[in-house]
């Protein structure tokens, strides 16, 4: 069946289309994703850095431990989830690549990469398990972005936008290509790669739904303050997201009909 995207973007009432989620006052704000990366030299313990980022206002924390075994990722995700929830922070936690770990840990979703399960397969697994998990996907071209949306992705990350230590030697996509992706998709597009408080305004001017960062927050001496500064810079953008992230008690979820 075709998926229907809720077109209601303001207000605090349930969607009149009956899709099951609502848009609060923050629905038109941009989302900040903070990703983990042990290779990037965090100045504080990585779990602490991510927890502090959540306290600083990060909307999504992605556990991105590509070289760690499943048990280590599971234990890390569980510990981080417990700390974030005990602190009363509103950040959602996603697990990169490992849908099984995301489900076992009680995370809010999974973020898939090129060598992960296909989006359509992950979507079917989530559906069979009762739904409720967001399924995101990394893309690097308009064609990949369209394919991810057609397969059932809730959102995509697109990049890298600027030069970044995560992809040395590879040319950045730039904001013009980001704008093209935002224009053709009807799901949220989150920009990634070399983004910081100094250039985030240029990124959000494309209509992107938010940004994902590693170094700008995780490598900071004070990740909480760094996340707060980045959120403040994002709040100054005069451009609202083309497609806002939906919010729902218990996780980010989209309707599928």
TrEMBL record:
Q: Does the keyword Metal-binding apply?
A: yes
Q: Where does 2-[(2R,5Z)-2-carboxy-4-methylthiazol-5(2H)-ylidene]ethyl phosphate bind?
A: 164-166, 194
Which keywords belong to this entry? Magnesium, Metal-binding, Thiamine biosynthesis, Transferase
The catalytic activity of this protein is classed by the Enzyme Commission as 2.5.1.3
Pathway(s) the chain acts in: Cofactor biosynthesis; thiamine diphosphate biosynthesis; thiamine phosphate from 4-amino-2-methyl-5-diphosphomethylpyrimidine and 4-methyl-5-(2-phosphoethyl)-thiazole: step 1/1
| Name of the protein in its database record | Thiamine-phosphate synthase
The UniProt record lists the keyword Heme: no
Q: Which reaction does it catalyse?
A: 2-(2-carboxy-4-methylthiazol-5-yl)ethyl phosphate + 4-amino-2-methyl-5-(diphosphooxymethyl)pyrimidine + 2 H(+) = thiamine phosphate + CO2 + diphosphate; 4-methyl-5-(2-phosphooxyethyl)-thiazole + 4-amino-2-methyl-5-(diphosphooxymethyl)pyrimidine + H(+) = thiamine phosphate + diphosphate; 2-[(2R,5Z)-2-carboxy-4-methylthiazol-5(2H)-ylidene]ethyl phosphate + 4-amino-2-methyl-5-(diphosphooxymethyl)pyrimidine + 2 H(+) = thiamine phosphate + CO2 + diphosphate
Q: Which gene encodes it?
A: thiE
Q: What does this protein do?
A: Condenses 4-methyl-5-(beta-hydroxyethyl)thiazole monophosphate (THZ-P) and 2-methyl-4-amino-5-hydroxymethyl pyrimidine pyrophosphate (HMP-PP) to form thiamine monophosphate (TMP).
Q: What class of enzyme is it?
A: transferase
Q: What GO biological process, any one, is recorded here?
A: thiamine biosynthetic process
Q: Write down the CDD domains for this protein, in alphabetical order.
A: TMP_TenI
- The Thiamine phosphate synthase/TenI domain covers which part of the protein? 46-217
SUPFAM superfamilies tied to this protein? Thiamin phosphate synthase
